[in-house]
């Protein structure tokens, strides 16, 4: 138990240290002025180049601090954790028992409760919370460092709160593995939000379609889709559009191509008719829908920016994929 508590504390301090380091970069006004000057003269293409906020990052951004921005900022900081608290109480039954419960879930072993799907799910969920928060804070804040700090803090708070809530349920328990997965997702989100060159090359997305057995389950709960792992796939995407962002003269059609590697499981959940657990890896090639969405609104930066947002997170299965069973009976 002591080892687990120590590991949890180390993970928390590590996450906060990274966030504080990012946040502290915004505290020097002279540095911030330099950042704004750099943005006016040249685009950010270097991994180590400084970054501030501008209309190029979020077309809704303005340099003025307004009352609306202040209200919006704290609405997000408070609303996101409160929303998760309500969801947890309703769906995951937080508080159904008074004694603290530890979980020993392990990682991606085939004989775990979900074969690792819950770990990837935790990673992706907090990646998404952090990135969506950043999209909002990149409107309210005057510096990218501050926006990154708020988004990372928001997502880390939600992740920690979820595990504490799970500790007071009869089903789940506090899982340090889940918390580590959360923080990994947040770290990836911060890297992609901080360095646009990475975001142009790398994507982390999910494909979800409710599984047949989930849809037919009468007592599934109308908001308990998070546990429907048999309807989900997670992907890392390598986007060829990144080469164009770096200035390479590539054929136009290559902007729409991305190479995918993914992971999913089937047969592990309570929604499945029979327990027949399988784990899969898959490789494929698909359409980069972010580029397609942006091209649909070339006359409006704001419309183009809004159109691409859903495709930061959700994969549209237009393309080809080859599955490989890594555990369970071959089909």
Structure classification: alpha+beta
How large, in whole angstroms, is the Cα Rg? 21 Å
* Series of H and E elements: HHHHHHHEHEHEEHHE
**How many helical elements?**
11
N/C terminus separation:
41 Å
Which descriptor suits the 3D outline? Answer: globular
Strand content: 5-15%
Task: Set out the fold topology.
Blueprint: H1 2-24, H2 29-41, H3 67-91, H4 117-140, H5 144-167, H6 176-194, H7 196-201, E1 202-208, H8 212-216, E2 232-239, H9 241-245, E3 257-266, E4 278-287, H10 289-295, H11 301-308, E5 319-327
Antiparallel strand pairs: 1-2, 2-3, 3-4, 4-5
Summed up, what is this model?
The chain is α+β, with helices and mostly antiparallel strands and 331 residues long. The chain has helices at 2-24, 29-41, 67-91, 117-140, 144-167, 176-194, 196-201, 212-216, 241-245, 289-295, 301-308, and strands at 202-208, 232-239, 257-266, 278-287, 319-327. The chain is built from eleven helices and five strands; from the N terminus they run αααααααβαβαββααβ.
Give a structural overview.
The protein is α+β, with helices and mostly antiparallel strands. It has 2 domains: 157 residues, no CATH class; 137 residues, no CATH class. Helix content is 48%, strand content 13%. It contains 11 helices and 5 strands. A 5-stranded antiparallel β-sheet has the order 1-2-3-4-5.
Features:
disordered N terminus; alpha+beta; single chain
């Amino acid at each position: 138990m002591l080892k687990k508590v120590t590991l949890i504390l180390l993970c928390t301090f590590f996450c906060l240290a990274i966030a504080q380091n990012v946040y502290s970069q915004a505290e020097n006004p002279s540095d911030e002025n330099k950042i704004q000057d750099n943005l006016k003269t040249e685009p950010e293409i270097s991994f180590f180049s400084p970054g501030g906020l501008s209309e190029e990052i979020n077309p809704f951004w303005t340099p003025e601090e307004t009352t609306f921005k202040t209200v919006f900022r704290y609405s997000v900081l408070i609303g996101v954790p409160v929303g998760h608290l309500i969801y947890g109480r309703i769906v995951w039954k937080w508080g159904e028992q008074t004694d603290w419960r530890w979980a020993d879930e392990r990682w991606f072993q085939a004989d775990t409760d979900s074969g690792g799907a819950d770990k990837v799910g935790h990673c992706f969920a907090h990646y998404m919370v952090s990135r969506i928060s950043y999209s909002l804070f990149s409107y309210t804040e005057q510096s990218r460092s501050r926006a990154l700090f708020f988004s990372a803090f928001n997502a880390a708070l939600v992740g920690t709160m979820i595990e504490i809530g799970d500790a007071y349920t009869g089903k789940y328990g506090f899982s340090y593995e889940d918390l580590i997965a959360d923080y990994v997702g947040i770290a990836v989100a911060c890297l992609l939000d901080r360095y646009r060159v990475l975001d142009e090359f790398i994507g982390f997305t999910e494909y979800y379609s409710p599984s047949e057995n989930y849809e037919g389950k009468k007592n599934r709960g109308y908001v308990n889709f998070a546990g429907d792992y048999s309807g989900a796939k997670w992907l890392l995407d390598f986007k060829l559009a990144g080469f164009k962002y770096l200035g390479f003269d590539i054929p136009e059609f290559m902007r729409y191509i991305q190479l995918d590697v993914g992971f999913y499981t089937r047969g592990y959940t309570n929604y499945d008719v029979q327990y027949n657990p399988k784990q899969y890896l898959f490789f494929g090639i698909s359409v980069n829908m972010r580029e397609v969405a942006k091209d649909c609104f070339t006359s409006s930066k704001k419309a183009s920016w809004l159109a691409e947002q859903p495709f930061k997170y959700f994969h549209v299965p237009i393309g080809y994929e080859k599955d490989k069973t890594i555990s369970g009976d071959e089909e």
